[in-house]
Specification:
The chain is mostly helical. The protein is built from four helices and no strands.
Length: 97
């Protein structure tokens, strides 16, 4: 039986393999399109663990939401290799979902 048929108690979602710089660029683009106070440029490397520092809570909440949205966009993009198609489901339980 595949892993997707197992129950989980959290909201792990599907892992999307993506490089940190690609994710950071997409998250920043998402954030740029949103109304409200922008996150200072110097805080993004801190958020992605490239440098150390502190992030004010209001900025952290906005960054988490933008990162989540960016991951969603990246998950919907076609695979960069393999003919531009994401692999399909690997079991009938996945196929039915």
């Amino acid at each position: 039986m595949c892993d997707c048929a197992e129950e989980t108690d959290g909201d792990e979602g599907e892992a999307v393999p993506v490089e940190a710089d690609v994710l950071m660029a997409r998250a920043r683009a998402v954030e740029a399109g949103r109304p409200g106070e922008r996150v200072p440029d110097a805080l993004w490397p801190v958020f992605f663990g490239l440098t150390s520092g502190t992030i004010p809570w209001r900025h952290h909440l906005r960054m988490v939401d933008c990162r989540r949205t960016a991951l969603g966009f990246l998950a919907l993009e076609p695979a960069r290799a393999g003919g531009g198609r994401r692999p399909g489901p690997i079991c009938t339980a996945c196929d039915a979902a």
